[in-house]
Fold this sequence. Notes:
The structure is a single chain. The protein is mostly helical. Helices cover about 75% and strands about 0% of the residues. Helix 6 packs antiparallel against helix 7 (about 140-160). It starts with a helix and ends with a helix.
Amino acid sequence: MDNIMRAVFATRTLWAVVLALLVGSVLFLIAGANPLQAYRALFGEAFFDYFGFGATLVKFSPIVLAGLAVAIPLRAGLFNVGAEGQIYLGALFCTAAALYLPEFYWPLHMAVCIAAAMLGGALWAAIAGVLKAYRGINEVIVTLLLNYVGMNIVSYAASGPMMEEGAPYPYSPEIPSSLFMPPIMPPTDAHAGALFGIGLALILAFCLKYTTFGFAMVTVGHNPRAARYAGINVRRQIVVSMMLGGALAGLAGGLEVLGVKYRLFQSFSPGYGFDGIVVAFMAAANPILVVVAALFFAGLRSGAQFMQRAVGVDSTVVDAIQGLIVMFVAASLSIRFSDSRWGRMLAQRRSMEELIAARGKQNEEKQNA
């Protein structure tokens, strides 16, 4: 029974998602739709239709990278809520490298653009990392405010010095076609960025578990004092963790330019950075689970339009369901097995069994004596 209840509590995030979907059924009923048909259209088109799954992968790429951008600093005890701004800065640096560097051998040029995107996100996140490490300023506040600064910098660039001449609204010239990310499901827009996300998740999971760098990061996250006593440079770990998260978010922005938009738009992200926060917490900052959670959220985003056409329910209902998922997941993460009624009851039973066993052993020793 103990193991069963522990398994239930270990998967509490999954149960929270299921409960949120059940509560979301009420919204479909209020809208006059059959919840089963709505969910069948939502998930069926998003995951089991060729073109629908292609649309899901398009959204999966930035969401999984944004989720990793939040999850990695989280393992170091840092809350990076600035992935949205880092996505914008990554897109800006990537577009600048694509447009203003002279064209050369396309694989190298693409690699430079990707590196520029990661550099832009890393430098933007480094601001919060340095302020946290050397001045003790809360990284949540800094990264949250930097979101809006970064978005406005991109808005200025797209509507000012980088704006295409004669454009009807703010966007840059199109990048060279040789820099377009290769497709993986033609003729859909799905591109190799999805493979980038999966590959990086596997690499990061390996590094966190089997390398000294990952051990140092996790140690700092669990107990900075113990890490400092063990000789780990805590300040450096804080800055590096934030920069690594920012680089991943910047990569998400760069891949949006290279794989989907092909130019820099004023407001190109519908909130992928904020989706990444939810994905990271759903996955408990586990890079492998981030892939699963990101795919689920990408399916919600892409399937919303299919559902709207199939059952006539506005896609904003899916936004409400996403909000419900956030609420239920947050509530589930606040519950610990040791603090629950079942946990206390099982702990009491275990201590009682140990006491009875100890007394039985004492009685047996007395009888033998």
